[in-house]
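Work Package 3 (structural annotation) set out to generate three-dimensional models for the target panel prioritized at the project kickoff. During this period the team completed the workflow that converts sequence records into discrete structure tokens, so that structures can be stored uniformly alongside our sequence database. As a representative example, we reproduce one entry of 338 residues exactly as it appears in the project archive.
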Amino acid sequence: MCIKGERFIPVILVDLPGLIKDAHKGRGLGNKFLDSIRQADALIHVVDASGSTDEDGRPVKPGFRNPIDDILTIEYEYEEWMYSIISRDWPRFARALDHMNPGQVIDSLSQRLSGLSITREHVAKALLLSKLENIKPSSWREEELRIFIHNLRIIAKPIVIAANKIDIPEAKDILKEMAKSLSDRIIVPVSALGELILRKAAEKNVIEYLPGDSFFKIKDVSNVTQQQLKVLENLDKILKEFGGTGVQQAINSVIFNALNRIAVYPVEDPNSYTDSKGNILPDTYLVPQGSKVIDLAYMIHTDLGKRFLYAIDAKTKQRIGKDYILRDGDVVKIVASG
């Protein structure tokens, strides 16, 4: 979908149930939440950066609670759930792994964790990051096993923290503390309420606003009440300070930072950038960085991958082979046999 020359790529967002302490033991909606994570490639953890919500979701005085506790709880509960699965009967399982080659070890670990939608690639990367790829599994202590689980969680289910309610003054100091204490996390300042107000105002034709922009334009000041004008002026300050409401930025951070995807555009006609019906840049694929053009062919259709001959870079008009590494923004035509 294109709006005023800007392309918006659809992604699926799933609202997960809330999580409480000891969810991995079955408390609250914990099991439902943890089970729902299977569907997700990544998580956007929305926290109250103003500290005006207690651990049970009830409103309290701004600054009352530190949202860092919520962030660490989510990470801890998910890792405990993963640990409970992989550590089950670990000594016997690990002894069997000792007699396997590295590839078979990765396959067996992947199979044990397949119910969590964790792939072979995730496991291989986690083993490498944990420096365990050359150590016999039967030698892993609990410490090594937990290090592996921690790295696997980061790789398989990356988290972007949406620090919401930045429009509340107390959020500024809490944001600074979050940035300092959680410097290795992706934290995006967000005003969900601000985004809602701007979108509703745009729908009513009061303002011109594009999701993700750091500005908006009032169409006719004479049609805006003083109260509305005050709200919009406050939102204008937030947009200038943070570069936007953060809602679109949080989604972008998941796709392009946490998941390391790039956008590529397959076309039928490399000269006009159109499909067979004349639609300009009709499709967008979000592929992992490092993907080859042959990978894109298989994503579009298995037969296209099997019958792949070559591709054409629509920007340079040069022919490219199957091992060409795709770049963000590439427009390509794939040529196949028969």
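The chain has a mean pLDDT of 90.
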